[in-house]
User: What shape does this take?
Amino acid sequence: MLLTCEICSVAFERGHNQRLRGGAWPRTCSHRHGNLLRFIGASSALPWRECSECGAEFYARIARLTCSEICERSRERSAARASSTAASQPVQRVCRGCSGPFTTGYGDKRRSWCSRDCQHRAEAPARLAALHAKRRRRSRRRPRVIAA
Assistant: This one.
């Protein structure tokens, strides 16, 4: 017996002894459409969406942007490619030590020194102060008594 799906209007043939619970004949071409029919009930407003990758229309109860896993993977790949190209662009910065401009090249884009020498010159006073404080703490300790 040839029937027409109430969701997609595709003609389908029902299987032998393919009655639903309660003895009713199937009204849709697949279980997925059957669930959709149960979800929407009698309302005719279907939540159709347009795929952001291929432009196909699809049904989605939840907020989805793509119609299939293939389109989802394609969308993720293009987003990752865009992100990686943005991350690989050089950034113009001002050095914290000498206040001169420098461009971050390959590597860490959070760099804030134009060179290692500039970083060591700028951080030397703090390093020396920490070293002196450590020496002062060490000298305040009681001398060790060695038992004979």
About this structure: The beta strands are 2-4, 11-13, 48-50, 57-59, 91-94, 101-104. Residues 91-140 form one domain. The helical segments are 31-40, 69-87, 116-140. The first strand starts at residue 2 and ends at 4.
